[in-house]
Amino acid sequence: MTPLLEVSGVSHSYHTMEGETKALSHITFSIDKGEFVAIVGPSGCGKTTLLTLLDGLAVPETGSILLNGRPVTEAHGRIGYMFQRDHLLEWRTILENVSLGLEIQKRLTPQARQELSRMLDAYGLGEFSSSRPSELSGGMRQRAALIRTLALKPDLLLLDEPFSALDYQTRLTVCDDISSIIRQSGRTAVLVTHDLSEAISAADRILVLSPRPGTVRAEITLDFSGENSPIRRRNMPQFSAYFNLVWKELKTQ
Ligand code: ADP
Ligand code: MG
């Protein structure tokens, strides 16, 4: 099977008045359809840069990124990007917010609108479809942001530290919610985080990046005997073993 995403020998630098910052070096990995991959690494190691390249928003200095065998820069609309902040618009209701992507792409048909209402119901936001973002909790806002992204039915979903603005307790619940929504929808996802427990609790596989310039230091496939709930995984004996393994990779200089 050809992988959905193929990243080969990607390096990238930023050039500013102060000089050159090498952000990523020789990154190679691939992701199969339906996989949930987490990328962990210290702050500043190039995680957001990597997602920007995967999204085709920037072109790598060297190397190639293919989605379904074609350059990712030609994959318009096939990739969904969820940011650290939810970017919900206060002057729009929740239903109008989740409709935004489809509206921009001129795909907001009556059926699409109905499907959005169904998704809001399914993900516990049905009663809030006419509310404004400020009336929702942080976790509910992140769920709305996810629905807005999933509505576009992307082949690949990119999540950049989506829980980092939430307090610890909310973060655990929202991570559970959001990973189960992603798994139910059968989407392929890349979750970037600096929180290794989050990565271990949610993903099928983890890529550990080194400090800047980011290189792939280790690739760890997680086996939780089919258990996909992040909260339940945290109580399984494998969890601490994986934690130690990833921690050791992160710590190595
Ligand atoms: P992470 O998301 O892992 O924290 P980033 O990808 O945001 O890391 O940044 C990697 C490195 O590249 C950092 O040293 C950062 O300062 C630098 N960097 C990021 N964006 C830019 C930019 N637009 N211009 C110059 N340097 C940048
Ligand atoms: Mg970042």
Automatic annotation (TrEMBL):
InterPro entries linked to this entry: AAA+_ATPase, ABC_transporter-like_ATP-bd, ABC_transporter-like_CS, ABC_transporter_ATP-bind, P-loop_NTPase
Database matches in CDD domains: ABC_NrtD_SsuB_transporters
Pfam families, per database record: ABC_tran
Domain ABC transporter, residue spans: 5-236
Key words, A-Z: ATP-binding, Nucleotide-binding, Transport
Record GO terms (molecular function): ATP binding; ATP hydrolysis activity
Name of the protein in its database record: ABC transporter ATP-binding protein
Species name: Candidatus Lachnoclostridium pullistercoris
